[in-house]
Amino acid sequence: MTHSTFTTLSIVSHGGADQVASLLASILKHEPDTAMRFELILTDNLKDNLPDFDPTPWFSLQILRNDKQLGFAENHNRAFEHARGQYFAILNPDILLEAAVFEDLLQSLITHQADLIAPQIVDATGSVQDANRSLPTPFELIRRRLPGYTFVPSRPDSDGMIRPDWIAGMFWLVRSDSYRQLGGMDKKFFLYLEDVDFCSRARLSGMKIMVDTNIRARHDAQRASRRKLYYLFLHFQSALRFFLSPVYRQIRRK
User: For the whole model, what pTM was predicted?
Assistant: First the structure.
């Protein structure tokens, strides 16, 4: 098997060893014939929280153990430095597969000549989550926190595809060449808006980002920034950085 024929999976744990185990179990359950084409890179952001998982089902398995906690962007960028696959998949540990997704997702990416593709994200009830949206504005971020706000999912085209401005980084499948061309995610962002910035830079570079609503994965959103002041501060800090950036000024004119 050559390096170009498999996909690298990057999963970062912030203390959720049980979630990581459940995600890996769901992949092995629903993708038994595909798992051997996955190079698995796990990042333990707490250094000693993850156990040594069995490498046997995977093409290869590495666990990167951080001496200090790093942000979302830097963790996945570091994993990418070890990645050898033609494709690079980023998954949050609280994602679960309830059916096979990777073969269809990869085929959809190739068919539509996309650089980044994601499945439709749903919660435990099957309700569509707000994992892909239009370009945020300062007013929109405020409006989302006000009483009465209701998320309205984008309507797919006749092929079931959505072409949003950005896709939340909870589940991405990216061409490794595209991720490399963009220099990965910007580690100056910490936990919030790394995905918005990355997708904006991708679009400015002429890359295509898409969601295939024919393919689904499950995620139960935590919404930490709505419950804890520290995360709210980080969200505000990242939003300020993005809205004052040249990327935001350029993408608004696109």
Answer: 0.92
Helices (H), 149-193: 176-181
User: Distance between CA 149 and CA 16 in Å, rounded?
Assistant: 30
Q: Which residues of 184-215 are buried (b: 16+ CB within 10 A; e: fewer)?
A: bbbbebbbbbbbbbbbbbbbeeebebbbbbeb
3: left (phi over 0), alpha (psi -120 to 50) or beta: alpha
Neighbours of 183 (CB within 10 A): 10
Structural domains present in the chain: 3-252 (3.90.550.10)
Q: What is the mean pLDDT of each run of 10 residues along the chain (254 residues)?
A: 70 93 96 85 95 94 96 96 97 96 96 98 93 89 75 89 97 98 93 92 98 95 58 83 95 89
Give residue 3's pLDDT: 40
Packing angle of the helix pair 194-204, 229-243 (nearest 10 deg): 20
Report which secondary-structure segment, H or E, holds 237: helix 229-243
